[in-house]
Amino acid sequence: MTTTTPTYLLGADTSERQRMLMQGEMFRPEAQRLLDRCELPPGGRAIDIGCGPLGVMDLLADRVGPTGTVVGLDAEPRMLDLAAQTAAERGLANVKLLTADAAATGLPRDSFDLAHTRLVLMNVPDADAVLDEMVALVRPGGTVAVQDVDWVSRICEPPHPAWDRIKSLVDQLWRTNGMDVRLGRRLPGMLRRRGLTDLGVDAVARVFQEGDAYRLLLADRAELCRPALLEHGLTAAAELDDIIGELREHLSRPDTIVLHATLFQAWGRKPVRP
Questions:
Q1: Which of 17, 41, 174, 177 is the right S-S partner for 53, CB 3.0 to 4.6 Å?
Q2: 10-residue averages of pLDDT along the chain (274 residues)
C-alpha cells in the first residue's frame, strides 16, 4: 500500500493474514510461472511491493538463493509484523522487510533485478506512481512484473440480486477512493507506456464450488468494507445486513458456483542504456 491511500480497506489483522496466505497459496502456480519468465538470477536482488504477510517473498527467496536478497515492502506496519512472523516460521533468512510508501520507497535507483507487485495497483489511488517507482528501482535489463485482477469475469451462477448489489457497492467504493476493480486488463499498456520491452501478458480465472472458502469472498469483502461503505453513504446498515445474509445463503447452496475475477499478469524488461 502507499501513503496516498489513508486506509487499507480490507484490514490488517490475524484473519486477514490467514486470508492472504490462503490467497497466495491458491495463486502459487501462476506466480511460479510468472517468475520463471522473469529470469531472476541466483545471487540477485528482488523486491516485492505491497508484500503483506508473505506475497511472493518465499518464491523470490528460493530463486535468488542464500547469496541473494529479497526486500518485502509495505506501508502498513501491522502487515510487516505479520510478514516477520511468516518469514520466521518459514526460515526466510535472505528476506529483509521495509516500511515505506510504494510510490516513494527512498531506495536506490537501478538497484534490483526484479520488482514485483500483486493485487496492489487496484487497491491504491495512484497506480501510475507505484509503477513509476518500480521501473526506477529496477536496473537496466531488469524486469518489472505485475499481477492484478479484473472484475470482467466476476459472476455467480445461478445469478442473484444480492451478488449484483454487493458487487456494485464495492465497485462504487473503489471508484470513490480513486481505485479501479478493472485495472487488470490495462497492465500491459501501463508497462508499454513506461518504455519496457519484451512485454508479456497472461490471464487466468478460477471457478469455486461447494467447499471452496473463496466462494464466499464477495460476502466477506462486503463485511470488511462495512465501515467505509456506511461512511461514504453508499448503503444503509439494514440494507447491507440483508444483502450480505441473502448472498451467504445463496452461496451456501451446493448448486451455486462462482467465477472469480480474472488475474492478469504482465511483465517487461527495462531497456539497457546505449
A1: 17
A2: 41 67 89 95 97 96 97 95 94 97 97 97 95 98 97 97 98 96 97 98 95 91 96 98 98 96 98 88
